[in-house]
Design a protein that fits this description.
mainly alpha; globular; serine protease; Peptidase_S54_rhomboid_dom
Length: 173
């Protein structure tokens, strides 16, 4: 007895299911509503990769074992098995990340440097900086769960504007 196997993920129907409405493609994450088009996310994954890359560069530049080699300095680096990528002692950064000096060198928001040092670029660079793994994970989960839906619902252009406006609002508050 031959059975037909349909690709359910791409919208194929199975013999047990009723026919779907024409033009309606099921989505594994979110149900597709009337008038929505099929979409492939690229903006949110790109932002996610960029954030992880910047955090990795910050951890490489931080180099906790080399900077905390002197005994009696606020404790040992956390996760020393990561060598150069190990985290600052919990007394210095409880979010498991680089030192505040490293974050400032890489572009963290310091209002004094923006206003008096004429470093307006910090208003934009701080969007990519994360204080630690916990901060990064929380933001990336929010980006995945909310950002993917916004990208699907409003499109790439509107989502980019919303994302940028949110960062500017966050920076100014």
């Amino acid at each position: 007895m031959a059975t037909s196997r349909a690709d359910v993920e791409k919208g194929g129907s199975s013999p047990r299911k009723a026919k779907q409405e024409p033009g309606k493609v099921p989505s594994p994450l979110y149900p597709q509503h009337e008038g929505e088009r099929e979409w492939t996310p690229w903006l949110v994954p790109s932002i996610l990769v960029a954030n992880i890359t910047v955090f990795t560069i910050a951890m490489y530049y931080n180099n906790c074992p080399a900077h905390n080699a002197k005994p009696g300095r606020d404790g040992q680096c956390v996760a020393r098995f990561l060598h150069r990528f190990s985290f600052q002692p919990l007394r210095q950064n409880p979010l498991l990340g680089p030192s505040s000096a490293t974050l400032v060198k890489m572009g963290a928001l310091v209002w004094d440097k923006v206003v008096h040092g004429h470093q307006g670029w910090r208003l934009f660079s701080c969007m990519w900086m994360h204080a630690g793994v916990l901060h990064l994970v929380a933001n990336m989960l929010s980006l995945l769960f909310i950002g993917l839906r916004l990208e699907q619902q409003f499109g790439y252009g509107m989502h980019t504007r919303l994302q940028f406006a949110g960062h500017i609002f966050q920076t100014l508050t």
